[in-house]
Amino acid sequence: MANKIPVGILGATGMVGQRFIQLLEQHPWFEVAWLAASERSSGLAYAEAARWKLNTAIPERVAKMRVSDASPNGAPKVIFAALDSGIAKELEPRFAEAGHAVITNSSAFRMHEDVPLVIPEVNGDHLKLIDRQSTRSRNGGFIATNPNCSAIGLVMALAPLHRRFGIEAVFVATMQAVSGAGYPGVASLDILGNVIPFISNEEEKLEAETRKLLGELHNGSVKAAPFKISAQCNRVAVEDGHTESVSIKLKNPVNPEDILNAWNGFRARPQEIGLPTAPDQPVIYDAGNDRPQPRLDVNRGRGMSAIVGRLRPCGLLDWKFTVLSHNTIRGAAGAALLNAELLKHDGYLCERV
Ligand SMILES: NC(=O)c1ccc[n+]([C@@H]2O[C@H](COP(=O)([O-])OP(=O)(O)OC[C@H]3O[C@@H](n4cnc5c(N)ncnc54)[C@H](OP(=O)(O)O)[C@@H]3O)[C@@H](O)[C@H]2O)c1
To answer: Which one of 27, 126, 149, 326 is the catalytic residue?
Structure first.
């Protein structure tokens, strides 16, 4: 513990909170020092409070830790947050006001002008928005966010193409795993053998977040990417992994080899500076004609890569393909952890925070 940064997890008992605990076990820079959840869990040992759903055991030290109230008193300066957005809207500013770095999964502040929405391989420079937050100059506190779990895989696949060729239009239809709805999430009678063609606010988030993530930082604010995007979101009976069927229109004609090279050769700062949670290859193209599949591919790149397949011409736009990403690792806890690693590397988690 001596050399590691102590971190807290808000919403530690939920699906994303559990992933944080799993990913932080053995982390070289951070160590779990504080756990908080709702009144239901407060005061209980973590193993009693959490309905643990992962296929690794709860780390022994964490299992015995008491779950605290979700209040900044006594919490470490670095907080990973995995709260429902309604409660996040109230609690996250409270922690930032009290001088904590809040690195969050919730959608509550993602689209705020002075809050960075970041995928480190795509737009790590947007973290500079933190310097616009009033709490930052007052006491060091701030809020930094990662995207919605369906936006992250899509944007990782689009980013190398947007950079090289320019994107003009995107159509995306998602098939999203049940773990994306938290626990207990969707009732089994609703989802077994079924597809639910509605996830509240998901299409709006996917469209708006994709354009902010691929937007440019100019004079202290983000100008959203100008392309058109239309999303259709579905919940399917898959445990982990969001699959998305994507069609794109590019500014100029390109060969399929150019697209494959852009994906396979895509590397960014997290890979160059060797952040511990960064995958070696952020975007992996699988040439199999029936890939990617959640059951076979979701854990590639330790769950941190976007797996792309089935590139082919599109009769409506220019190209179509499939992308898969792990919704609670790359799409949630792993995304926030990578943001925290970049924040530490760039000096945002030292000094007062
Ligand atoms: N699941 C995903 O794939 C995914 C991906 C990206 C982003 N997200 C976002 O991450 C957040 C968490 O999602 P999840 O799937 O982990 O949800 P979840 O399984 O429902 O967990 C919610 C967590 O919030 C806690 N909580 C609820 N009410 C609270 C309150 N009043 N005060 C303090 N803590 C409270 C719960 O504690 P108790 O156990 O004590 O009730 C639990 O720890 C959401 O904003 C979600 O949209 C989820």
So the answer is: 149
